[in-house]
């Protein structure tokens, strides 16, 4: 009998951007592939109890839908009580490909269709917009402005002094904006009040913006960002004429609004599987962040909703078809 293949892997619990597993494994572990079984070993995360080393043996005949994404590996396990999805990371793509070759290549009909549609979608955005220069430019400008404002030693004292400093730098200060300084609708988009504020916004921009830029194209995406940000600033000052608002969150919500408009159009070139995936993830993002805006003080929900609506309308104007000439148009 040939020696089993053993791989070092890393497990994650309930991660949005990493492969999760149903066994509550967390951290380093191992994957052993035998002729008839796959054996997973790691420490099991248990609430209010110490982690415990556990082992799960999976029958090879029950494994279907094996696929990889870079260093991530996923597969489904068909069982009497329903299917389970198992995922983990390995050291590099070569190891992931090796595991893919050793596990069964059986695909369920539903998975085969969904997997093919996701591949078609990525082929299309690779064709039209293989890189994302606009996102990196926007990140650079936002961070540079924040650093320059931080180097300005005035306004490092009380909250009132900090507020006055933001006004000097171009915040959306209601009385000034409504009395002719309309440029504040734009400049306020690139100002942030704290390290936490800019860190959260830039992380959100990077997470959602790269995909949206590749769907719209860089120039159209930049237009979507600016129109959404101005819509958010305008909604903020119209809702509260005494507002003193800063931040890119209105533009970020607008990017999401534009994405919703894009995937809602007929003949967009976004396959049905991807539309379903995106709607589910965007709904959770919007519910969480809008809900949090009503709980946490100093959150400008008017800017968020104004940016979302403005981005949705702009998205209909700026969206394009992702269909590639000569490619399957499904």
From TrEMBL:
Source taxon at top rank: Bacteria
Cellular compartments per GO CC: membrane
GO MF term list: serine-type endopeptidase activity
Compartment list: Membrane
Entry membrane topology: Multi-pass membrane protein
Entry keywords, A to Z: Hydrolase, Membrane, Protease, Transmembrane, Transmembrane helix
Residue span, Peptidase S54 rhomboid domain: 180-320
TM stretches of this protein: 134-151, 189-209, 221-239, 245-265, 277-296, 302-319
InterPro entries named in the record: Peptidase_S54_rhomboid_dom, Rhomboid-like_sf, Rhomboid_protease_S54
Pfam families linked to this entry: Rhomboid (PF01694)
GO biological process: proteolysis
Keyword Transmembrane helix annotated: yes
Family classification: Belongs to the peptidase S54 family.
Name this polypeptide is given: Rhomboid family intramembrane serine protease
